[in-house]
Amino acid sequence: MENLFKDERLNYKDVLIILFTWSFLFITVFYLNTSEFADIIIINDFLAFMLKTTALAVFTAVFYSYFNLIYDLSLKDLGFDFKNFNFNISLSAAFFVIFFISAVLITYTADQSNTVGEFNPVYRANSLKAIMSGFPLIMIILISTAIISAAEMFLVNKVIFALFDLKFPSAIASVLTALFFPIMLLEFRPNKILILFLAVLTANYIYRISKSNLLPAVLFYTAYLTNYIIFIYGYDFLL
User: What is the DSSP letter of 211?
Assistant: First the structure.
């Protein structure tokens, strides 16, 4: 279904339910990770990352159950069309290469200048041996980011973009979506807002040229998150 909200059965009540569920889970995770409670039970960055993954897995289950039970919408209707997986491989690969090269260059520059601060990658870009030895952890991160991407791409494309697209041309709706989404993530760090803005714009473009199928956007966003967690910011990129 190209735009969920063109279905006359859906209204702003459904939007509020989705946004409330998202906000409740997200704020709960944010509180657990930043309050004194986190110190009591010793929540480190990895556990905080897994806590967020679990919360977004719950969000995905909730929104699917909600739309399926109340409106009888299938996964295909919600954008997860596994049968008609039309995907421009070369375009997606080009976007990913751009993000990957930028990650390597940023990390390399930080290493060369001994920059300390926000750069805390799980593995350094020049440590292939470490990456191979840490393959199980990388797979855990990859699976986790796939879960996170499925939830976030649904919210970005099927809710936020769909609403803006009802009132504005698609290009403007895409920009507004990319500007609004960092607020939903409680992300107010300028450098990460810029990265997120570009990633959401790219993912939304892939979604639109893929006949409103979320899977290509989810694959791109998964690669993007995994890349930046492993090579640049570490788990803090999502916390």
Answer: T
pLDDT at residue 239 is higher than 80: no
Q: Are 18 and 209 in contact (CB under 8 A)?
A: no
Positive or negative CA dihedral for 139, 144, 150, 156?
Answer: negative
Q: What percent of the chain is modeled with pLDDT above 90? A: 16
Distance CA 142, CA 95 (A): 18
pLDDT at 35 over 70: no
pLDDT at 128: 55
From the list 165, 171, 161, 140, the residue with the least C-alpha distance to 217 is 161
Mean pLDDT of 115-126: 56
4 — phi, psi (to 5°)? -55, -35
| Residue 81 lies in domain | 4-238
Q: Is the pLDDT of residue 237 over 80?
A: no
- 220 has pLDDT over 60: yes
> What is the three-class DSSP state of 198?
helix
Contact status, residue 63 vs residue 188, Cβ threshold 8 Å: no
Q: Give the number of domains in the chain.
A: 1
Query: Cα separation of 124 and 114, whole Å?
Result: 13
Q: State how far the Cα of 224 lies from the Cα of 103, in Å rounded to an integer.
A: 10
Nearest-Å Rg of the Cα atoms of the chain is 18
For the chain, the average pLDDT equals: 78
Nearest to 70 by CA among 18, 33, 26, 2: 18
The residue to which tokens 């494309």 are assigned: 157
